[in-house]
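Saturday, quiet lab. Running sequence design on the structure tokens for the scaffold JK sent over.
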């Protein structure tokens, strides 16, 4: 059973400042039959915990800063998303709504771990948000419809100016609207952050996947897939924006009449970094993207296999904007990779350290643009791994490897920047291990060095390795000195029998290798302890047999010579001691 204290801690993290660890937990349906009844009974910082099931209702948070979550919230198991469903029954309302008066401080509720489906209304078929700054996490929002904006989610009004509105691990699928099939955000005073999410199979007249108007947007690790717009922005449309930041995201298989993957229209500051535009289609212009009247920086993009029926399968520029393009790939997208719309206002296109098919000839200015073709550009097949199956990583012979701006930040493998969204990891050769092998030491107490780890591990890439170990007993006092020598300094009379020790080598980029071996440490090599000692008198000798007993800590067979004297005669015999056990031995006389 999850304790009240545990859930309160989870709630505290979601609230980012509301840390009342004595908040109540309201269970649905155990304590309250419906989710709404649980919300109505809650107070700020409370948690409404919902068991799996289908809840046919419309849920309104009001002005409360609470957490409403499925068992995903307490277990971390995403399977509860599919089994805990809020169904709006297409009854003319949003499935979930967050509403507050404009002149009040926006509450900061959280919704986690549900499927939101079958909402139908004018704005925000699945979720409606106004003057609230919620955190939406681990949600599937699907099969919702809005006559106007935001088929899946609609956001407007005021939010938390610092936190913004946060969507994490949210899937927007098969929603529809006039603007923003998946999500629409309209004139918000706080940024919208969408992370680790999927926007797919949504449909709209404009902005098939998303529509953002007059607000700041940050997309990170978002997949925008298979969305459709009847007119503009198959993947999405950003309109009259202050700041647009799209990082590590992919636009693939989207369709529209203009701007198959993306439209940026009148955006003051746009940054697209390490994004992929593939397989998008337009019947008009700009298969990958259509950028109008915007100031944009495009860095490490991969733009390939997009299609435009009329003009430019890559990126089209219009209305006097400026585009700075660095370390990007534009390949296999028709006769024109980059272009300016015919008859438009002059645009400035700056291209450096990029791969553009057909080079400068792959850029069509249409007498409405200026091209600054800088150094470092190449025209060659980028040699992707497998485009038929959507793999746009580079193969080891790609001309894009180490061809980026030498003054740019190196790739994560420490080499010169590559061109394109996916760098080629040149640190793929594994660390070579020359195993130490099992070790047995028969030593007196004192420091002993027994391995040079630079000989045990070798990095074919020439990277400097760091070393660590695990499972070494404290009494062994094992360590690694500045010269990468492995040593131990055991306690006095400490012995160790076949303990498995593991040594770990790690390069600067997180690649690791391990070597495990069995270590035996013997205590000081004293002679066996014999008792009761020499026989006190002849009564200890019986029928030419003498009884001795001794202990020995050595784990391996060891041979001792035993010398006996009887009446000036010397009798020698040899005893083999096995396994270090205490034993009784009978020694027969032998002639001297």
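Result came back. Writing it out in full:
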């Amino acid at each position: 059973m999850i304790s009240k204290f545990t859930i309160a801690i989870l709630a505290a993290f979601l609230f980012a400042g509301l840390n009342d660890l004595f908040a109540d937990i309201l269970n649905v349906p155990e304590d309250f039959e419906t989710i709404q009844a649980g919300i109505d009974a809650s107070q700020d910082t409370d948690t409404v915990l919902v068991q799996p099931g289908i809840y046919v209702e419309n849920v309104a948070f009001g002005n409360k800063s609470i957490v409403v979550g499925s068992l995903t919230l307490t277990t971390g198991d995403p399977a509860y998303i599919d089994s805990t469903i809020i169904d709006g029954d297409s009854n003319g309302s949003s499935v979930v709504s967050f509403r507050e008066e404009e002149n009040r401080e926006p509450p900061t509720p959280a919704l986690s771990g549900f499927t939101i489906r079958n909402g139908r209304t004018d704005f925000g078929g699945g979720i409606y948000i106004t003057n609230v700054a919620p955190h939406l996490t681990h949600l599937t929002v699907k099969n919702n419809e809005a006559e106007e904006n935001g088929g899946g989610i609609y956001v407007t009004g005021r939010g938390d100016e610092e936190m913004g509105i946060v969507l994490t691990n949210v899937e927007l699928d098969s929603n529809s609207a006039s603007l923003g099939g998946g999500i629409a955000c309209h004139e918000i005073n706080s940024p919208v952050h969408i992370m680790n999410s999927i926007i797919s199979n949504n449909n709209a007249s404009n902005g098939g996947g998303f529509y953002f108007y007059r607000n700041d947007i940050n997309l990170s690790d978002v997949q925008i897939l298979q969305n459709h717009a009847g007119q503009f922005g198959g993947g999405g449309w950003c309109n009259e924006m202050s700041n647009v930041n799209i990082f590590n995201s992919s636009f693939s298989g989207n369709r529209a009449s203009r701007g198959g993957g993306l439209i940026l229209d009148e955006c003051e500051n746009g940054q697209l970094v390490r994004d992929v535009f593939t397989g998008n289609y337009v019947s008009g212009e700009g298969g990958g993207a259509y950028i109008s009247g915007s100031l944009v920086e495009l860095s490490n993009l991969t733009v390939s296999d997009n299609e435009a029926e009329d003009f430019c399968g890559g990126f089209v520029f219009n209305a006097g904007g400026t585009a700075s393009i660095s370390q990007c790939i534009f390949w296999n997208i028709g006769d024109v990779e980059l272009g300016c719309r015919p008859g438009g206002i002059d645009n400035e296109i700056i291209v450096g350290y990029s791969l553009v098919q057909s080079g400068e000839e792959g850029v069509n200015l249409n007498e409405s643009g200026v091209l600054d073709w800088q150094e470092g550009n190449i025209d060659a097949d980028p040699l992707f791994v497998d485009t038929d199956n959507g793999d746009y990583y580079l193969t080891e012979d790609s001309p894009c490897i180490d061809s980026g701006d030498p003054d740019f930040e190196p790739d994560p493998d420490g080499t010169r920047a590559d061109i394109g969204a996916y760098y080629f990891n040149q640190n793929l050769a594994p660390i070579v291990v020359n195993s130490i092998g099992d070790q047995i030491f028969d030593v007196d107490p004192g420091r002993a060095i027994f391995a040079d780890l630079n000989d045990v591990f070798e990095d074919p890439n020439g990277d400097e390795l760091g070393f660590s170990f695990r499972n070494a007993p404290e009494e062994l006092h094992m360590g690694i000195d500045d010269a990468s020598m492995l040593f131990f300094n055991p306690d006095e009379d400490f012995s160790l029998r076949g303990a498995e020790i593991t040594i770990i080598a790690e390069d600067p980029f997180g690649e690791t290798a391990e070597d495990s071996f069995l270590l035996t440490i013997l205590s000081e090599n004293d002679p066996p302890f014999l008792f009761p000692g020499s026989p006190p008198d002849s009564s200890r000798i019986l029928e030419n047999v003498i009884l001795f007993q001794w202990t020995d800590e050595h784990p391996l067979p060891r041979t001792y010579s035993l010398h006996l004297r009887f009446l000036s005669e010397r009798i020698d015999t040899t005893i083999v001691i096995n396994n270090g056990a205490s034993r009784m031995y009978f020694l027969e006389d032998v002639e001297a």
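Notes for JK: DSSP finds five helices and 58 strands in the chain. Confidence is low (pLDDT under 50) at residues 1-21, 526-561, 565-592. Ask whether to fix the surface positions before the next round.
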